[in-house]
Input
Amino acid sequence: MGGSMRFVVLLLGLAVPQLTAAAAAATNPLLESGPFPRWSEIRAEHVVPAVGQVLAEESASLDLLEQDLTRALKDGSLSFDRVFLPLTQIRLRLDAVTGHFDHLSAVLDSPALRAAVEATDPMRTLFALRLGQSKAIYDALNALSSTAALRSRLNAAQQRLLSITLTDYRNNGVGLPPAERARMKTIAMKLQKLSTNYTNNVMDATKAFKMLVTDKQKLDGLESSTLAVAAQKAKAAGHKNATTERGPWLLTLDFSTYAAIMSFAKDRALRKTAFTTYRSLASSGKTDNTPIIRQILEYRREFAVLLGYPNYAEQSFSTKMATFKEANDLLNEVARDARPAAKQEEAQLTAFARKATGNPSLQLQWWDTGFWAERQKEALFKVRQEELREYLPVDSVVQGLFKVGD
Output
């Protein structure tokens, strides 16, 4: 069988799992291959079966790809598409499934969903390592890069993708001795667990903050939309008679509420409470992320050293267009050049706030700047964010997005 025919057979083999997934999607919405996720139908019990099925299918696809690339290297039929089309398909298939429930975990966390996602973490990490340490794929990438006749056929974008992918594979330890690859596998598993624990701690600390307000004066300045959401939260928490106008109102630290407080709440003490709590989330008690951060830094350092980098920053920048030094120098340069303008804007904002409050000695704190910047913008441009809402109804915005997309 010729090389081109074998490539067609490979792609057909990769398509079989897609057909299987399409049939399974009738009972598991995470396996739906349509343009939009079936968000309302996704449940925690769908996660483990979906990931198990996709990993089994993509493991089979990876076996086919490795066999095909081994043959292509032997018979000289290797090409860019022969490597990257199947490789991209394998990556996208898994990302399409995990991306859905990872997003749900971030915005609609629950004990059942969290347990289901955590159950899949080891499986996903092991597959990512297997894919990233595939010698057959690495050898094919090396051949594309080092063989002049093959490389000459690639355009600039393809050469850049090839270079980044090669570096990614090296950073996965594909070229290391077995003992060091095994250590990298252990580190990767530990980092995955630590990352999950870190995220869970932040979510738990965020959900732990609840401030029930019964005095509407304390919420003076907040937009009616924010008050409506706070009243709905209070009602969900058991205050059945809560209304937008009469309260009570339950304030939380989800970002939309936090941003509204920092921009519109006239009560300085409320802003301070929100700011200091938000900025210190997961830094003490049962959700303290401090030891987790230290462990992550240590494992990242060890991982980087195993790969031959002096530190994790150098490893991270190995696939970026700038070096660590160039990025650091740029940040310092921007900070130096921007500081005079920033100081001038700070002085202008302080003068505005002092005039508005009648307090000539007012010193703005971190929890003041967002509020007074919003008041200054309103004074300069004669517009409030809430007033813009009536011009942006959700149906019109969605239609506009699709129109732009077309």
In short: The CA atoms of residues 269 and 367 lie 9 Å apart. DSSP finds 17 helices and two strands in the chain.
